[in-house]
Write a structure and sequence with these properties.
Length: 319
């Protein structure tokens, strides 16, 4: 006799993000029809773009079963560096920040792999270093970019065919990261480490290299996100990333990525980011207290992790 398979919500977690985004847009449109106005959607695209970069990059560390608690602080540091030095380097600050992020990510990855220290401990410590850099460079709070330069930076938030240019950059990054994760040896190695690191070693995968690559990708995306925030805000903001790590992780979990690693997709992560941003935008339009927004995102994160966890509790392991 064939045993009937027991129903489990976790079996359908990969579809949760699609259901969530539809539900969110329907609810907020009913509550406020202006939620889906052209102006509101354009603003949402601008808001969502830097967070898409952050979350999609961070996804690669989570694919390995690790975590980066300092991703938001790195965004703050690179936002400050971008805002302060864009007057000297102009738009060249963007590739410079990519390089800076890669180096910072490399530092995290080397410490994790060579010293065999869990990633959450390493990044919890380096988080303070990134925050120190941001606050040291901007000790008195935000510093506005020179008025004469602002006109030359407006292109990032300008619109092409009604869509903000910054959103096109975010979509391009998602496509590149998707190709990397699906069709390159390095991308597949990152997933192999998260699925079963011992089996990956036996199969000849350089697991240290794969983990370091994940941190480099995440660092590059975090730094680019910081530069985008500087362009968007037209200022260096030393606290811009304070709440972003929670939003990024919630988006990743909502997209069906396993917190134990080995399973996920940057495409679903991007949709998760749009969902989280839509929720915060909708709550803003309703005048909800900002404290409640963080609480709601925290609840979403708990629910998403629960739905993505297997019945053996494997997903509570963080490397």
């Amino acid at each position: 006799m064939t045993q009937k398979k027991k129903f489990s919500l976790s079996d359908y977690s990969q579809y949760m993000v699609v259901f969530s985004i539809i539900l969110v847009f329907v609810i907020f449109t009913i509550l406020n029809p202006k939620f889906i106005s052209a102006y509101s959607l354009q603003n949402m695209m601008v808001e969502v773009s830097p967070l898409i970069l952050l979350a999609c990059g961070l996804s690669f560390i989570i694919y390995t079963g690790g975590i980066d608690l300092g991703a938001g602080a790195m965004v703050s540091a690179t936002c400050v560096i971008s805002g302060l030095y864009v007057t000297r380097f102009g738009n060249g600050i963007i590739p410079i920040m990519l390089l800076v992020g890669a180096v910072l990510g490399l530092l995290n990855g080397v410490i994790v792999t060579k010293l065999k220290i869990p990633s959450f401990i390493v990044t919890l410590c380096t988080q303070n270093l990134w925050a120190y850099i941001a606050l040291t460079l901007c000790p008195n709070g935000s510093v506005a970019i020179d008025l004469q330069l602002r006109k030359t930076l407006k292109w990032m938030t300008a619109k092409a065919a009604g869509i903000p240019v910054i959103f096109f950059f975010a979509l391009a990054a998602v496509v590149i990261l998707f190709i990397f994760q699906q069709y390159t040896t390095s991308g597949r190695s990152i997933f192999a480490v998260g699925a079963n690191i011992r089996a990956a070693r036996l199969a000849g995968v350089d697991t240290d290299r794969a983990q370091i690559m994940a941190f480099v990708v995440s660092g590059s995306c975090s730094a680019l996100s910081g530069a985008f925030y500087a362009y968007k805000q037209l200022s260096a903001v030393p606290t811009i990333g304070d709440a972003l790590t929670l939003s990024a992780i919630a988006s990743i979990a909502l997209g069906g990525t396993s917190m134990a690693g080995g399973r996920g997709s940057v495409l679903r992560t991007a949709v998760g980011v749009v969902t989280i941003t839509a929720i915060t935008s909708g709550l803003n339009m309703m005048g909800v207290d900002p404290l409640w927004k963080d609480i709601i995102i925290g609840v979403i994160l708990i629910a998403a992790v629960y739905l993505n966890s297997d019945t053996k509790g494997r997903d509570i392991i963080i490397k």
